[in-house]
Design brief:
By secondary structure, this protein is mainly alpha-helical. It has helices spanning 2-17, 22-38, 54-98, 118-130, 160-165, 168-176; strands at residues 107-112, 134-140, 145-150. It folds into 2 domains: 2-75, no CATH class; 83-176, no CATH class. It contains 6 helices and 3 strands, in the order H-H-H-E-H-E-E-H-H. The chain has a 3-stranded antiparallel β-sheet. A hairpin with a 4-residue loop joins strand 2 (134-140) and strand 3. The longest helix has 45 residues, at 54-98.
């Protein structure tokens, strides 16, 4: 099962490396195998101990193949979308910095989490923080709320979630499925 997750990561590694030399391939295999081993639980992989016979364990493994593959697919699709959102937010920050007058109002807003687990919420919070103009400050686990410093809280009520999170909540929900 972990081997299935290794191949797409290795393919991405080789594309980003730009060459297929032996040293690059060996480094990619080692790093991708380490990433798969470390993050196996994040992708929904669980031990099959106690599952009964090895046939039952294999069947359970096949049943998890689709969700793992789906998560890898959505993570790969999310990367260029996320980079585009970071670029647009960076341009927006540059425009705000170049304006002769300050006509924005920074503030701290409460963003409902609403995701299934804390790991996805942490990825969501970090994705927002990496987007220029927002900084995740705190997570209230009891209410599942994130507190985010946002560069412009004017018009706070209008399409608030999409504006603060740059529409990333939909992508996080896809990664959870």
């Amino acid at each position: 099962m972990k081997v299935v997750a290794l191949f797409p990561l290795l393919a991405v590694w080789l594309v980003l490396a730009g060459n297929v030399r032996a040293s690059t391939l060996i480094a990619g295999i080692v790093l991708c195998a380490a990433a798969v081993a470390i993050f196996a639980n994040l992708a929904g992989e669980h031990s099959t101990r106690g599952a009964g016979s090895s046939a039952e364990a294999r069947e359970g493994s096949r049943g998890r193949l689709l969700p793992v593959t789906r998560r890898i697919f959505w993570a790969l699709v999310f990367m260029p979308v996320f980079l585009g959102k970071v670029l647009l937010s960076g341009l927006n920050m540059a425009l705000l910095a170049l304006k002769p007058s300050i006509d924005f109002w920074p503030g701290i807003v409460r963003v409902p989490g609403g995701l299934r687990n804390v790991v996805t919420t942490a990825i969501f919070a970090n994705a927002m923080t990496l987007t220029p103009g927002t900084l995740t400050l705190d997570y209230d686990e009891s209410n599942d709320d994130l507190y985010v410093h946002w560069i412009d809280v004017t018009g706070y009520e209008e399409d608030f979630d999409r504006r603060v999170t740059s529409g990333m909540r939909v992508w996080m929900e896809r990664l959870e499925r």
